[in-house]
Write a structure and sequence with these properties.
about 475 residues, mainly beta, Phage tail proteins - horseshoe like beta roll fold, seven-stranded antiparallel sheet, 38 strands, about 40% strand, globular
């Protein structure tokens, strides 16, 4: 018999900081948390996690159907609240779980339709964006834009600004966002110059200058060419601006820190903890990130992940239930003793579909390198290319680098990316709800029908609580089955 579904709905609108909770199921019972779950659910949902074009593995849920009980005060949409949902069809908070300690999915629920017998609700993620943008700001001297830097940067071009744009100091300055207060290197027309002053900019994230630094020197002129070399700060909201951030893990820390501390307009934060889960990565690679276009920070994090072969997802953790950012290194292989390793028997597999690798002609990982040639600041396109065939698609990704000294690291990273893309993919339908499985897990099984041994990584997963089945999909190493 299927295990009872457990759903929590907050009736008050999220913008009001909802606090009236209703506990529902498809079978009346007392949950492990001591709550009584009313059996109002007559249509179970499907919950799915699927990768996007970037590095964000998003969680979605299908609709949910409740019995219509307009006069039942225990029903979330019964009694006086019946007219409420007609006037305000949503959004309302919803949490869904099976037998986990905490929710598997948290999102928003909206009224879809009402009949005499049932209420159909659509379920959506809390957000697919953070609601907060990060990016360059303009120079008040109309000398270009002030870019946002993260990681180790090398000879990046910088504009002239009026020092008062950021601080109480007057005069002409060189402007750049998010460098540490440690001394970097300023070059004017190819020559290193000593600054008059260094200023750490500590405006709140979300302002026109969300953290940064500026150097001042009396001989900066509009006719000169200028560059800066230094290290991005890890916390854009930390006044000292002393902690440096150099890896993709540090950048994820910074994004999580911003998202949990600055979005205060409603009670439904995308994240509820600034602690990033890094259990599915090894040593995170050094990453140079130049933010020259304004972007939502969640989209920004998604856009840089493919360049280092990473993914991430956001879901409640099973320690305290807080929504957490989980990092995944696609190159990571959970060992047989890991909690993320799952060995299945043949009878648990309902069916599999094996798809051949995509036809790829070239894979490239590219970046722009700025360098001085005498008094001229020049640039060149660098990177690495792997050719795989005479036909197929060309895949070009942005490397998280900006200097020729990083070429060997970029080449190694491209090989790691290629090793994932050239594998076949497997979609497997498995009996039962594997509600503790997540993207980045490793699943191994023998399949006698197709005479194959499958060792796969989970990139997408769907929990079908109607059929009580779990479907997983991802790249796999497939070998002939050796009969014992």
């Amino acid at each position: 018999m299927p295990r009872p579904l457990e759903v929590e709905i907050t009736m008050d609108l999220p913008l009001a900081g909802g606090s009236v909770y209703y506990y529902l199921s498809d079978e009346s019972h007392v949950g492990a948390n001591g709550r009584f779950y009313h059996g109002f659910i007559i249509g179970r949902p499907k919950i799915k996690m699927a990768p996007t074009s970037g590095g964000f593995v998003q969680m979605t849920s299908g609709g949910i159907t409740l019995v219509n009980r307009p006069n039942d005060s225990d029903h979330p949409f019964g009694g006086s609240r019946y007219t409420t949902i007609l006037a305000t069809p949503g959004p309302y908070y919803i949490g869904i779980k099976f037998d986990e300690a905490y929710n598997l999915f948290e999102g928003l629920v909206f009224l879809q339709s009402i009949t005499s017998d049932e209420i159909k609700l659509s379920v959506k993620p809390i957000r697919t964006t953070s609601g907060l943008n990060l990016g360059p700001t303009g120079s008040d001297l109309n000398d270009g834009q002030v870019n946002f830097f993260f990681g180790a940067i090398h000879d990046q071009p910088v504009p002239l600004i009026d020092a008062s744009q950021f601080d109480s100091i007057t005069g002409t300055a060189i402007g750049f966002q998010n460098l540490t207060t440690s001394t970097g290197t300023i070059k004017i027309d190819g020559t290193t110059r000593s600054p008059d002053a260094w200023s750490a900019i500590n405006d709140a994230v979300g302002s026109s200058m969300s953290g940064g630094s500026a150097r001042y020197n009396a001989d900066y002129t509009s006719s000169s060419k200028r560059s800066v070399t230094g290290t991005g700060a890890k916390w854009a909201t930390t006044p000292a601006m002393t902690a440096s951030g150099t890896t993709i893990g540090d950048f994820a820390d910074q994004i999580a820190h911003i998202m949990t501390n600055t979005i205060t307009s409603d009670s439904l934060y995308v994240l509820e903890t600034a602690t990033v889960d890094k259990n599915k990565i090894g040593t995170p690679p050094d990453s140079t990130i130049i933010i020259s276009q304004e972007s939502d920070i969640l989209n920004l994090l998604s856009s840089v992940m493919p360049g280092v072969n990473y993914q991430f997802y956001i879901a409640p953790n099973q320690t305290d239930g807080n929504r957490t950012l989980f990092l995944i290194d696609k190159d990571n292989v959970p060992g047989t003793g890991s909690d993320y390793y799952h060995a299945l028997s043949d009878f648990e597999i309902i069916e599999i579909v094996i798809r051949a690798p995509k036809e790829i002609k070239n894979i490239s990982l590219k970046y722009t390198d700025y360098f001085w040639s005498g008094t001229d600041l020049e640039s060149q396109e660098l990177g690495s290319v792997i050719s795989l065939g005479a036909s197929g698609s060309d895949i070009s990704l942005q490397a998280l680098a900006d200097d020729s000294s990083q070429s060997s690291t970029v080449s190694t990273m491209l090989t790691n990316i290629k090793n994932v893309l050239i594998k076949p993919t497997v979609k497997a339908k498995i009996a039962g709800l594997k509600s503790t499985w997540r993207p980045g897990d490793r699943v191994v099984f023998d399949r006698r029908t197709e005479q194959v041994h499958v060792d796969m990584k989970v990139r997408g997963i769907e929990w079908d609580s109607v059929a009580m089945e779990t479907s997983i999909e991802g790249e796999a190493t497939i070998t002939d089955l050796v009969q014992s």
